[in-house]
Amino acid sequence: MAARQSVIRFADVGQTFLGADGKRVDALDGLSFEIDRHEFVAVLGPSGCGKSTLLRLIAGLIHPTSGSVEIFGMPVVEPRDEIGIVFQRPTLLPWFDVLGNVTFPMRHKYGFVSDVERTRARELLELVGLGGFDTRRPEELSGGMQQRVAIARALLLDPDILLMDEPFSALDALTRDEMSFELLRIWTERPKTVLFITHSIPEALLLADRIIVMTGRPGRVREVLDVPLARPRSMKTLSEPAFHELASHIRGRLFSRPVAA
Length: 261
Ligand SMILES: Nc1ncnc2c1ncn2[C@@H]1O[C@H](COP(=O)(O)OP(=O)(O)OP(=O)(O)O)[C@@H](O)[C@H]1O
Known about the structure:
Layout: E1 6-18, E2 24-36, E3 40-44, H1 51-58, E4 66-71, E5 74-75, E6 83-86, H2 98-102, H3 104-110, H4 115-127, H5 143-155, E7 161-165, H6 173-189, E8 193-198, H7 201-207, E9 210-214, E10 221-226, H8 241-254
Parallel strand pairs: 3-8, 3-9, 6-7, 7-8
Antiparallel strand pairs: 1-2, 1-4, 4-5, 9-10
Adenosine-5'-triphosphate is lined by residues 17, 19, 25, 27, 45, 47-53, 217.
């Protein structure tokens, strides 16, 4: 069996912000966990518990007030190419066509896009099911299609780590299920370490190897749960008894208060 390799490591991380009213907001407190290479980990927690903050820490967009955040054993000091990010909204640039949007990270980083990268971008568009859509404008695409473009863009620099912040929450329920299965297919074809933030217990169970369940603010780890559901997962997975047992367990954890130590 291959040795486990920790890719993301949070050690006793605390994050405090100063609100607009000058009051201190403790967003995270004593947060510790590790994520292994090519693991798919979902993060579930009540609104405002610091899930996006956790993602921004990994992305190097903010720095922890206390504790340490490491990627591949090195503290995160700035945004890195090893990380691709997909947000809730696709945030496509309306003045670029689909290909221009997917290749944007290259243009932003190097000031130009090579033919090799254009070819790679077209391959990624095939991968996300948008082959032949290169010259379309974002406004011509549905929400699900735009989010596929955002996923292709996040994969352009071939990141080891994919951070996804509620990427499907703005989509209708059917498209959301479809996108979940698409993401699993992409992850199988191009293994990545994925951290996926969601409010949806079924979505977390369908996608993840492990689920980090957080407490309310300040966010801490309430439980890290293995998801032993067989892969490949399909619509059938949703009706497995184990799926329902896990969902009800998580629901109980999310809606119970922590017991004082
Ligand atoms: N830059 C900031 N300045 C001040 N407060 C902030 C800042 N960023 C986040 N916060 C606060 O930190 C807390 C955690 O925010 P965060 O967005 O990480 O939560 P979340 O779990 O992602 O929320 P949701 O599930 O509603 O998206 C919230 O109370 C938020 O208001």
